[in-house]
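Hi,

Apologies if this is the wrong queue. I'm a grad student, and the batch job for hydroxymethylglutaryl-CoA lyase from Hebeloma cylindrosporum produced an output file that my downstream script rejects. I'm not sure whether the problem is my script or the file. Here is the sequence I used:
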Amino acid sequence: MASLRSVIKTTAPRLGLGRARRFYSIPSAAKQDVRIVEVGPRDGLQNEKASIIPVEVKVELINRLARAGAMTIEAGSFVSPKWVPQMAGTAQVLQGIKKFPGVHYPVLVPNERGLDDLLQLLDANPGLTDEIAVFTAASNGFARANLNCTVLESLVRLGGVVRRARERGLRVRGYVSVVVECPYEGRTGYGRVREVVRELVDMGCYEVSLGETVGRGRPHQVAEMIEEVKKGVSVDLLAGHFHDTYGTGVANVMTALQHGIRTIDSSVGGLGGCPYSPGATGNVATEDVVYALQESPYHVVGSSSGNTIDLEQICDIGWWISEQLGRTSVSRVERAMRSRKSK
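Support response: The file is valid. Your script probably expects a header line. Output copied below for reference.
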C-alpha cells in the first residue's frame, strides 16, 4: 500500500501542499520552560450538554484566564453551530474579550467556510486574533466520524485552509487526534502519526499538538509514540494534548516533558470530552498540571507574578466556571485546595 506521503505528493502541486517556508519562527523556549495552551474555552466547552453557554460567560472566562497568567487561550471555533452548538457566538466572543498584551487568542477553523467567516470578521475588525488551529486524525475511522472523510482527504482540504491563512498573516497550529488509540480502530500505528504530523508541518503549521483523545494512553505508550514522531519532525514543533479518562493525564504530561516536548494543552477545571470518543472525559486540568510542575525542574511560563500562571487564581476560575455549568470541577488539585480553605 502506498504511504500517505507518496499519495500526498501526487496532489501537492495543484493544492499547494508539501514543504513550505513558515511565515513565523517560534523561538525555542529555555530548556526547562513549559508553555501551556489553555483549551478550556474551546475544547473544554464545546461538548457541554447543558443549555447554550452565554457569550458573556465565555468572555469572562477568557478574561479571567488571561489575568491569571495564561498566555495562549483558545477563544472558540468557527464551526457550524448546527454541529457544535456551544461554539455559536465565537465572533462575538473575540469582539468582547479584553486583549491582554502578549496573549494569543487562537480559534479553531475546521474548513474553508470557517476560514471565510473568520477572514470576513478580521476584514472589519483587524487584530481580533493572529492564530488559527486546524485538525485531523491519525486514523480513518476517527476522521470519518469527526470529519466525514479519510485522513488523506482531510489533509488535502486543510492544505488550502493553511495556505490562505498564512497568506493573511495568521499563524497556524495543527492538531492530530487519536495518536495512541482510536475508539473505532483500536491501537494507532505510531508511524501513521508521524506521517500525518510531518504533512501538517510541511504545509505550514508552526506546531502540531499530539492528541491522546481517548484518554486511555499509558506513559510508556506515550513515550513510544513521541519517539516515533520525533523521527519525522523536530520535538520543538510538537505539543502534548492529553485527556484524563483513566487518570493518567498528569503522568502522560510528565512523560511528554521527559521526551522533550515543551508545550502542553490543558483545560481549566478539567473541562472537555469528545463527542466522537464515547466515554472520554475532559482534558487534563490546568490546575493539576501547574501544581505538578511547581518546585520541579520545569517552569510554567505565564504573565502572572513570577512570570508564571497563578495556581490559586486558576483554581478559583475552575470552580467558578464549573458552577456556571452546573457541574463539579474534576481537578483534584482544585478540590483539595477548596477543601483546605473551607476548614
